[in-house]
Write a structure and sequence with these properties.
Layout lengths: L16 E3 L2 E3 L6 E6 L6 E6 L4 E6 L6 H9 L2 E6 L3 E6 L6 H7 L4 E6 L2 E2 L14 H5 L2 H7 L6 E7 L19 E2 L13 H10 L16 E7 L7 E2 H13 L4 E4 L3 E2 L9 H12 L3 E5 L10 E2 L7 E6 L17 E4 L3 E5 L3 E5 L2 H18 L5 H10 L20 H6 L15 E6 L4 E3 L4 E3 L2 E5 L4 E4 L5 E4 L5 E4 L2 E4 L3 E9 L2 E9 L1 E6 L3 E4 L4 E3 L2 E5 L4 E4 L5 E4 L5 E4 L2 E4 L3 E9 L2 E9 L3 E5 L2 E3 L5 E3 L1 E6 L2 E4 L5 E4 L5 E4 L2 E4 L4 E8 L2 E8 L2 E6 L3 E5 L3 E2 L3 E5 L4 E4 L4 E4 L5 E3 L5 E3 L3 E9 L2 E10 L1
Parallel strand pairs: 10-12, 10-14, 11-12, 14-16, 16-18, 18-19, 23-31, 33-41, 43-51, 53-61
Antiparallel strand pairs: 1-2, 3-4, 5-7, 5-8, 6-7, 9-13, 15-17, 20-21, 22-25, 24-29, 25-26, 27-30, 28-29, 30-31, 32-35, 34-39, 35-36, 37-40, 38-39, 40-41, 42-45, 44-49, 45-46, 47-50, 48-49, 50-51, 52-55, 54-59, 55-56, 57-60, 58-59, 60-61
Helix pairs in contact: 5-8, 6-7
Length: 758
Amino acid sequence: MKAIAAPSRYGKMLLALTLCGMTLQAWMTPAPVSAFSADTSTQTKITKSETEEYIVKFREGAQQKSTKLRAANSVSTLAQSSDQHMLIRLEKAADETALESLATDPNVEYIEPNIRMYATASIEDPYYSEQWGLEQIQAPAAWEAAIGDAGVTVAVIDTGVDYTHPDLKGRVDTANDYDYVNNDRDAKDDEGHGTHVAGIIAAKQNSQGIVGVAGDRKVKILALKALDRDGEGNMYDVATAIMDAADLGADVINLSLGAELEDGVESAPRTITDAVQYAIDKGSLVVAAAGNDAASADRYVPASIPGVVTVSAVGTDLRLATFSNYGSSVDLAAPGVDILSTYPGGRYAYMSGTSQATPFVAGVAALLKASEPALSVNELNNRLLDTAADLGKTGRDNQYGYGLVDASRAIQADSSHPTEPEPSDASITSLKADQSKLSLPPSGSGTITITAYLKNGSKSAVAANDVVWQTKDKKIAVVENGLVTAAGFGKTTITATYGGKTVSVPVEIAVTKLTASKSSLTMKPDGTVSVELTATYGDKSKETVAAGEVTWKSQNEDIAVVQDGAITAKNMGSTYILATYGNKTVKIRVTVSITKLVASPNKILLKPGTSSSIIITASYGDENEVVTSDVDWKTGDAKVAVYREGEIVATGFGSTTMTATYRGKSVRISVDTRLKQLQADTTRKTLEIGQTVIPVIRAAFSDGSIEQIEEGITWTSSNEKVATVGDNGEITAKAEGSTTITARYGEKTVRITITVAP
């Protein structure tokens, strides 16, 4: 494991690929730009890719929808997104201050540029076959000694795999392969490099072609294509492929690619670092190439990322290849010069590079996992390192790491005992714990394993029962044989002593985030609402907290009280409920008030003498209550309408507004009782002297009804010498001439012209 500083800037990156003795290189040459992180208040100068693409990492549990909308609606284009990341592309004319705005979003953990990769290659005679590497790593002996045959999946994140090749047919998982370049489910190789890598790992042991390191074991290749036919890809796709591989259950992930950090940059991009750690946490051993620039692998990623098994390349003389990188990041060496393997189209080809060395180690890991499927990532890692054949200077060195990977020794090693004799106290130079810090949930547990580093440069795993374990505060955590169990909230330190040396591991049992199922409530008096709390702990686990374990408090019990998460409203007003668990407190705003008063209906059309029922509803947030009988009523004109026992009663013609008031909120109801129209069955009539007639009068009311009116009409004649009209509307002709009879009802009039003939 290699420690690494916090991420900052990074720059030119190189693919660790080689074809036919010619180094296959991929460059990333970004120009300077300013980017911003939501973690700090200062700007961080980083570099950007030529494509103007940026990777946005979301915080754990973040609500992403609004952030994605912001990105899509600003000067950027949303290119791709996943559960944890979003890839955005700035427009050419865009001001990079758009990044600053996006970085202020509380859902964003960090922003960094995406990086482009390129690759080219040539091919030698594909038919000349000699697999010298298998003998050097003792693969045939390992095949004889291996007894288990469990199914194993090795993810090859590369240019894809030609699954139709006779030596790979049936070895590739075509149900789960994926092409991130073309966004489809066919990861067939159109460049060659990925097929070559896959053949080194798992070419079938049959009567033709070559055989892979895994021999005849049940090893499947999961092909995830992150580089296109020109060898071009980007960090976003590679990181996504790593996490997808882990989610698909890959036991081993082969990364025959790499990236060189820019001068002055001390840390890897967080996108790729987080992806690697995610895979390790999910149980995938990550194996990566050291690089092909005859330079320090400590300047490359993923080679320098903690937890990655980093591989340098050796030739037939078992000396470091002239092109191979070296450094403190190197863990193992493997054959990497003139390696014959499968190539698209049923062919075979030679290639050289740490890209070819890496699948030798991945293949041995797969062989080991097939024999002992219960091995953890740490156990696989340690077995590979502990059983390596020492090369160069005695003990670990910067060229070969712990030595040449040895398949036979790895298979035959007894995992229950150290491969080397117990070191004497005097031979130990230091101890190292596999955990630099342990974060646990309450009552949770975690394991610490100890490695002893010896004076000869080698290392040895220490049995837990040989270590003296101590805890600084048993009220917070206890430890037994490396098993640490949380006892209470707080911080303490676990110390492990062995061979006169001591190593300390900080332990923290703390809530990193506390959230309530409701952050704001609007309630009615005497109403009760229950609230649940969710705690996130240092190990990123989450749980719903039992209400009895939380300390609840109301800032104003006259307005609301709380008991075991049940909040009961008392009186109108607002206050806060405080919920405390562990070292975190969350506030829940409680407002006891009517948010809205609603009348149904809110517009009433009536005719005098009729009525309409009315319902008044008070809304308290999401809760409603019918309050009609408790409302205070006021009418604008009692001659038009009044409220009586749940009804609006029309008392006369006209229009008015009724106002209902309840607990400080009011709602208005419009009442219309006006007469819309008055009609007579005739508007012109000729009579003889002494003749009578009674017109038929009809009224159209606001409620849409039409009725014949016989009472309540006021009748007048403009010339009673010609014709008179009675109270019942009977018109009597008196003398020759003409007159106008007027009928008035509800402020409407209708006129009838009467002509009396001689």
